[in-house]
Design a protein that fits this description.
The chain has seven helices and six strands. By secondary structure, it is α+β, with helices and mostly antiparallel strands.
Length: 164
């Protein structure tokens, strides 16, 4: 995580922090162009690490909204084994939403809101046939999954101040 933090600092970002060992990086920059930031970070990481790293930027305010969002009924959330959030570059179009919903099973349910996909796993994830790889193959897009607890902890720690 120290090396990852240093890569972000070398791009000129300030107040760089990593959050748990999962590739979550918090930083400040005057730029508000998330597409440009994602491209710059992806290019830097590809150049220094030697492989592609898809990057998904959310502001601290967006993260707070994602953490607070209720995609399913409270009773369904309480009964479920896990709630995960897939971060996407762009909102899904209608065709992609239909493909996603065709992946629903008795174990897995999905909800799309903005650039996030919420995956409710009703049993152990090991019993599910769904994964980030399945999502990427089905929709032909890159994504990254995080557990809702991680997102809520990040949102609580990094209250909105205009950061990424």
């Amino acid at each position: 995580m120290d090396v990852l933090r240093q890569h972000f600092e070398s791009l000129g970002y300030t107040n760089v922090e990593t959050f748990i060992a999962s590739g979550n990086v918090i930083f400040e920059t005057p730029s508000k162009n998330t597409k440009s930031l994602e491209t710059n970070i992806e290019n830097k990481l590809r150049g220094t690490l030697g492989y592609e790293v898809a990057t998904f930027i959310r502001t601290d305010a967006e993260l707070a909204g994602i953490a607070a969002y209720q995609p399913f009924r409270s009773s369904d959330l309480e009964a479920a084994a896990a709630l995960n959030i897939a971060f996407l570059k762009d909102p899904l179009n209608e065709s992609s939403k239909q493909k996603l919903m065709s992946l629903r099973t008795g174990i897995d349910d999905f909800h799309v809101h903005g650039r996030e996909l919420y995956w409710l796993c009703k049993k152990k994830q090991s019993e599910s046939t769904f994964s980030n790889a399945v999502l990427e193959r089905a929709l032909g897009i890159k994504s990254t999954l995080r557990g809702v607890n991680t997102i809520q902890k990040m949102a609580a720690k990094f209250t909105p101040r205009g950061r990424f």
